[in-house]
Amino acid sequence: MAEDGETRVSLLSIREQSESHNQAALVSRIAFVGTTTQNLKKKGDLETLFQNFFRKHPPTEDRETASGLLLMLTNSFIAVVEHSSKVIAALMCELAEAPQDEALIDPASIRILVTTEDVPRKHFPLFVARAVALPRKELYESEPEDIEPVVSQVYLSLLTLGDHITAAFERGGDALSKALDGLRTSDVTAPLLPNDDTLSLLISSPELCTLDDFVALFCTEPNVVLDSELVWPPDNSEWFILA
Questions:
Q1: CA distances (Å), 166 to each of 71, 83, 90, 170, 171, in order?
Q2: How far is residue 114's CA from residue 19's CA, in Å, rounded to a whole number?
Q3: In this model, does residue 140 exceed pLDDT 50?
């Protein structure tokens, strides 16, 4: 309990102050899948959607630049975003609140694969996007009883892709462009790319966190109840008493 004259400080305030004083900004990561809508006329418009959002949240002393990967398939996509937890939450809220007649992504289709705070390191040097369409098929005779192994495989493959992209980026020149253009043809990176069947399986899974679930957890102001507001016994004037 705070003594007289002391200022009460919330846990959130302490965390924000800690982050602001850290020399290295804390980075979070989210991976999610979803389907596009009929409003999407060109694949490039989906990349523009993400880039325009990141421009509204430029890097600062306590916030690094955006990094990650956007893979666009036939009618679906998968994205990995590395940024501060606040910017990631703002991105997901913006996707959830997009007007239906303008939305390029169907909010109801979005499934969160992984969300992690304070990751040890980034796996991507910057945010990049590519359209990929693979003839490779995944044979699912029936929906797996446990979706977790599929999620783990897809997620780890994306991080491995990020390491290959980072290596190309560090070589400089046009190495990055060549690496991105060769994602579908390289014997190293092509097996790491998910296909439409895999994304459809993830999007239809009832076990994964939906966008609504994410917004309720991270984008909704908590309803704080003080001890002084708790009354016992509760008012039973509206209780139904069964004889």
A1: 16, 16, 26, 6, 9
A2: 22
A3: no
